[in-house]
Amino acid sequence: MGFFVRNKGVPVSDVQLKKLFSRFDKNNDNRLSREEIAEAFSQLGAFFPGYRAGRALAYNDANGDGFIDLHEFNDFVNYALSRGFELKF
């Protein structure tokens, strides 16, 4: 597999994003913190990954606990898909 970058290559699928984001759940608590989300967006080649993580939480953290949990995960993945990340080979 290649690596993820923005605006070059083949669009990333929801399955690829789910796998990528799941890898960043470092403590295996089935939720993503702002720091874990920022690391994932950095891996995707996002400009200002910390800012992107904050925006992702603002749009997708339905219960306001500061994490993306299993109930919010699909909406979060759809949000990330809408940002236009692509896979470069």
UniProtKB/TrEMBL annotation:
InterPro entries: EF-hand-dom_pair (IPR011992), EF_Hand_1_Ca_BS (IPR018247), EF_hand_dom (IPR002048). The keyword Calcium applies. Pfam families: EF-hand_5, EF-hand_6. Keywords: Calcium. Residues 12-47, 61-83 form the EF-hand domain. The keyword Calcium applies. This is EF-hand domain-containing protein. Coiled coil: none annotated. It comes from Hevea brasiliensis. The lineage of its organism: Eukaryota, Viridiplantae, Streptophyta, Embryophyta, Tracheophyta. SMART domains: EFh. It comes from the Eukaryota.
